[in-house]
Amino acid sequence: MDRLDRRGFLECMAWTGSALVWTSAGGVLSSRMIRPAQAADAPSGGFSFVQISDTHIGFKGQANGDAAATLQQLLDRVNTLRPAPAFVIHTGDQTHGQKPGAFDALAEQLKGVKTERVFYVPGEHDVFLDGGKEYLSRYGKGTVGEHGWQSFDFKGTHFVGLVNVLKYKGEGMGALGQDQIEWLEKDLAPLTSSTPVVVFAHVPLWAVYPQWGWVTEDAERALTSLKRFGSVTVLNGHIHQVMTKVEGNVRFHTAMSTAFPQPAPGAAPAPGPMKIPEADARRMIGVAEVTLVQGGQPLAIVDSILG
Amino acid sequence: MRKEAVVLIGLALAASPAAHAIGPGSAAVGIKEFTFAPAALQVRPGTTVTWTNHDEETHTITSTTGAFGSSGLGNDETFAQTFSRAGTYEYFCALHPRMRATVIVQ
């Protein structure tokens, strides 16, 4: 998906048959979905949530001298959303290199978000030093076997959080592992195929760019168990840019980072933080708002840059 | 007496093979664009190898056998390891396991 300019955005949104409301605050465009006319009264089950990703607290580089500051500016933006998001999902790389104090600092910042709850899945930056010990001591409780994966239902939509950064086998790509895949199959089994499903995980579950590790090596079987559902949305992070793909009833979306962008696949010798001025990087970092409207309509994902 | 000793030592050093640019007991590996360079570093026993991360992304130096390992290195951060015993030491980056290289001590 290309950079989000107004025209490109409207083109993308046209297929949903929904209208957009653009507002401008401080010269920065942000957008909100407005519901189609017939659903204008009581939303009855419709809701929105926010996906943030790759906050990399502790990062300091050319594109961003203060990752906590850009995150705060984006969270302040999230706090202006009306209605407030039902919850927030963080798709991993909370910290940059598991820097001491980073987990605490992030938790503190997220306390300021006007929402009911934050759900987490780890990125490789959160677990590489100790096999996930620190991460799971904070966010393992309430997950399956305290391994970090989890599912929950919200207003008829089934959400699944997967961990694909703890089973690296030296191939340098995401991996789910047998036990998690088997759990997923059992978890989905009782659901009717008309249940909307949202899956979130750090590393993309589809092959964005395997050369850079932007793929999950054993996602095939997991995706097969999702095929029967009428509406599946997969939300990932890791690549620090928006990328989308539709395959049958499955819609894949990767979010921007709140800290720094990474190059488009193959556009640089290697992945990693782009070395560009902060002013330019601000147009390539942001958050995603996801809105579900009941009645079998596709959910809408709006990616907003910081600007 | 002292003068002759100094001269003798000087001659011995000049005659020794493989004088390194860094210094006789040390060597360097650079990490740039997700690559360890040199990929295969040859050193003598007792050499201290220093890695420097030139990327803004975090990298580690992690032995495949657990013999040595760094924490996450940020931009311009370094890690040093002295290799006393001869052998081939494979290592990789824990964040990006496709990054692999070796230190050959002989």
Question: What is this entry, summarized?
Answer:
The complex is a heterodimer of chains A (307) and B (106). With 307 residues, chain A is of the alpha/beta class.
| CATH architectural label of chain A | 4-Layer Sandwich
Report the radius of gyration of chain A as a whole number of Å. 18 Å
SSE order of chain A, as H and E? HEEEHEHEHEEHEHEEEHEE
Structural class of chain A: alpha/beta
Mean pLDDT of chain A: 87
CATH fold node name of chain B: Immunoglobulin-like
What structural class do you assign from the helix and strand content of chain B? mainly beta
End-to-end Cα distance of chain B: 36 Å
Average of the residue pLDDT scores of chain B = 86
CATH class of chain B: Mainly Beta
Approximate shape of chain A: globular
Number of strands of chain B: 8
What's the CATH H-level homologous superfamily of chain B?
Answer: Cupredoxins -  blue copper proteins
Query: Under CATH, the topology of chain A is which?
Result: Purple Acid Phosphatase, chain A, domain 2
How would you describe the shape of chain B?
Answer: globular
Describe the structure.
The complex is a heterodimer of chains A (307) and B (106). Chain A has 307 residues and is an alpha/beta fold. Chain A has a single domain (6-305), classed as Metallo-dependent phosphatases (Purple Acid Phosphatase, chain A, domain 2), CATH 3.60.21.10. Chain A is 20% helix and 22% strand. Chain A has seven helices and 13 strands. Chain A has helices at 6-14, 67-78, 102-110, 133-139, 178-188, 219-226, 278-281, and strands at 19-25, 28-34, 47-52, 88-90, 118-120, 150-154, 157-161, 197-200, 232-236, 243-247, 250-254, 286-292, 300-305. Chain A has a six-stranded mixed beta sheet with strand order 6-7-8-9-11-10, with no helix packed on it. Chain A has a five-stranded mixed beta sheet with strand order 5-4-3-12-13. In chain A, strand 7 (157-161), helix 5 (178-188) and strand 8 (197-200) form a beta-alpha-beta unit. In chain A, helix 2 packs parallel to helix 3 (102-110) and helix 5 runs parallel beside helix 6. Residues 1-43 of chain A have low confidence and may be disordered. Chain B is mostly beta strands. Chain B has a single domain (19-105), classed as Immunoglobulin-like, CATH 2.60.40. Chain B is built from one helix and eight strands, in the order H-E-E-E-E-E-E-E-E. Chain B has one helix spanning 2-15; strands at residues 26-32, 35-37, 40-43, 47-53, 62-63, 78-83, 87-92, 100-105. Chain B has a four-stranded mixed beta sheet, with no helix packed on it. A four-stranded mixed beta sheet of chain B has the order 3-8-7-5, with no helix packed on it. In chain B, a hairpin with a 2-residue loop joins strand 1 (26-32) and strand 2 (35-37). Chain B is globular. The termini of chain B are far apart. Chain A binds chain B through residues 59-62, 96-99, 124-125, 128-129, 168-172, 213, 269-273, 275, and chain B through 33-35, 55-58, 60, 71-75, 92, 94-99.
